[in-house]
UniProtKB/TrEMBL annotation:
Residues 44-109 form a coiled coil. InterPro entries: CCDC89-like. Keywords: Coiled coil. The keyword Coiled coil applies. Residues 123-140 have a biased composition (Acidic residues). Residues 113-140 are annotated as: Disordered. This is TUSC1 protein. The keyword Endoplasmic reticulum does not apply.
Length: 140
């Protein structure tokens, strides 16, 4: 037996300095892997928070949309003076344009999140998103 060279079964092969260098390399690799894992977990948590915020915003916009359409269908209440039909229609068109632009921006953001490999939505919401994206692609 000489020079630090021994058989296989868990016995060392190489000098103590080589083994120490190998161990240091393994420790550094392990530390880097842990750092990357923590970074991924932090990024995923941030994406989940953003996803939750966007879901809440989506719900709010849907409620607002329903309310606006209900108002448009029912007309002004008894305490509100009726606006000129042309003015009201123009205001509704402007409001519709703003809502459509918000909707397009939200869909673009969802596309970017999906392309970046963000957390997947649940089955129903994912199908709904696919339907919305398909509708938007079909529009001019």
């Amino acid at each position: 037996e000489g020079g630090g060279r021994q058989g296989w079964r868990g016995e060392s092969r190489g000098s103590p300095q080589q083994l120490a260098e190998r161990y240091a390399d393994l420790a550094a690799s392990h530390s880097e892997a842990l750092r990357q894992r923590e970074e991924r977990e932090w990024h995923n948590a941030r994406l989940r928070q953003e996803n939750a915020r966007l879901r809440l915003e989506n719900r709010r916009l849907r409620r607002e949309n329903r309310c606006l359409f209900r108002q448009a269908l029912l007309g002004p209440g008894p305490d509100k003076p009726s606006a000129e039909p042309g003015e009201e229609a123009e205001a509704l068109r402007a409001q519709l344009g703003r809502l459509q632009e918000k909707h397009r921006r939200a869909l673009r953001h969802l596309r970017r999140c999906r392309a970046a490999g963000g957390p997947e939505a649940s089955g129903a919401e994912d199908g709904e998103l696919d339907e919305l994206l398909l509708e938007e692609d079909e529009q001019p």
